[in-house]
Specification:
Elements lengths: L3 E8 L17 H9 L4 H8 L2 E8 L10 H21 L4 E3 L8 H13 L6 E3 L20 H10 L3 E3 L24 H15 L2 H4 L5 E3 L6 H10 L16 H8 E4 L6 H11 L4 E2 L9 H10 L4 H16 L4
Parallel strand pairs: 1-2, 2-3, 4-5, 5-6, 6-7, 7-8
Helix pairs in contact: 3-4, 4-5
The chain binds 2,6-dihydroxybenzoic acid (GRE) and zinc ion.
Length: 326
């Protein structure tokens, strides 16, 4: 399929590039690094070769969220967004951008998002999970009350917010002791991000701000597959839910969430997601350069779904969600 749009597609600059070192085989680092730093050569080459018209670009992970110093987090977020805007401006027909945000200070984060959307033309934000704030040993999640004024601004700006994975801190990772291969994209990224998304849903955030659009990668981080059980465990007891939100979790998932195919190139899994949430809320992405555009595109172009669904998932859902004029 030509004209595909991807929205979990990463870049990096010198300030945060080392955050991506160590996830893949050390022999791959030079290549991965060059792909993260490149915009117009390898990246566009892959896009042209595999029918990807546009990448909506975002900074690598955990980047800003792992900078406990608030002033430094704010400064590096701004610098990264400025550098990204410069690159996007060179090829506005092929690239758009999501803002990196200093969630360490909700007010600065809201201001930076406003600046990115209103002045730099960005079409949303991408945040890498919890933030470390002032101390290395802290993990602050986005459902907490101090973030609600920030969420109000996200709703007013009417731009999507991509909740992207990061690893839990070592102090939160006892379950992985002795099994480091379960960290990162194998399992820990998805577990961390799924629980964070569930916290948003059961907090009541979407009762207050019902027009928020949250995006999850990796085919929804396992949530579609678990959605029935989340709302229906022990249903014979007929006990009401014990959380502050007013509705069932699935209702928020189906009205405030969108998922992408990033790094999860499996037709069976995508069909399960279609059965849970319909094809209007699923969007193609590759997760370049941690994954290959080739692997994503060859799988997606040949997946056993209907052609109307392929066009929606590959392209038109992104045009509608981000209000792209292409
Ligand atoms: C990502 O950000 O998507 C990512 C990493 C590290 C390894 C794999 C991966 O940051 O998908
Ligand atoms: Zn990613």
């Amino acid at each position: 399929m030509d004209g595909k749009i991807g929205l979990e597609e990463h870049v990096s600059f010198n300030d945060t590039i080392e955050d991506s070192n160590g996830f893949l085989d050390p022999g791959i680092w030079d290549e991965l690094k060059s792909r993260l730093l490149d915009f117009h050569v390898k990246r566009l080459g892959f896009m042209d070769q595999f029918g990807m018209e546009m990448m909506i670009l975002s900074l690598n992970a955990p980047a800003i969220q792992a900078i406990p110093d608030i002033a430094q987090a704010t400064e590096i977020a701004k610098r990264s967004n400025d550098l990204l805007a410069e690159q996007v401006a060179k090829k506005p027909d092929r690239f758009h951008a999501l803002a990196a945000l200093p969630m360490q200070d909700p007010e600065s984060a809201a201001q930076e998002l406003q600046r990115c959307v209103n002045e730099l033309g960005f079409c949303g934000a991408l945040v890498n999970g919890f933030s470390q704030i002032e101390q290395e040993e802290s993990a602050v999640y986005l459902d907490l009350r101090q973030y609600w004024p920030f969420w109000k601004i996200v709703q007013e700006l009417d731009v999507p917010f991509y909740l992207h994975p990061r690893n839990p801190l070592p102090s939160m990772s006892q379950i992985y002791d002795g099994h480091p291969w379960l960290l990162g994209p194998t399992w820990a990224f998805g577990q961390e991000t799924a629980v964070h998304a569930l916290r948003l849903m059961c907090s009541g955030l979407f009762d207050e701000y019902p027009d928020l659009n949250i995006i999850l990668g990796h085919m929804g981080e396992g949530l579609p597959y678990s959605m029935w059980r989340i709302d229906n465990r022990n249903s014979w007891v007929k006990a009401p839910p014990q959380y502050p939100a007013k509705k069932k979790i699935a209702e928020y998932f189906n009205s405030n969430f969108h998922i992408t195919t990033s790094g999860n190139f499996r037709t069976q899994t995508m069909i399960d997601a279609i059965l849970e949430m319909g094809s209007d809320r699923i969007l193609f992405s590759s997760d370049y350069p941690f994954e290959g555009v080739e692997e994503a595109a060859v799988w997606f172009d040949n997946a056993s779904i209907s052609e109307p669904d392929r066009i929606k998932i590959g392209r038109t859902n992104a045009i509608n969600l981000f209000k792209l004029s292409i």
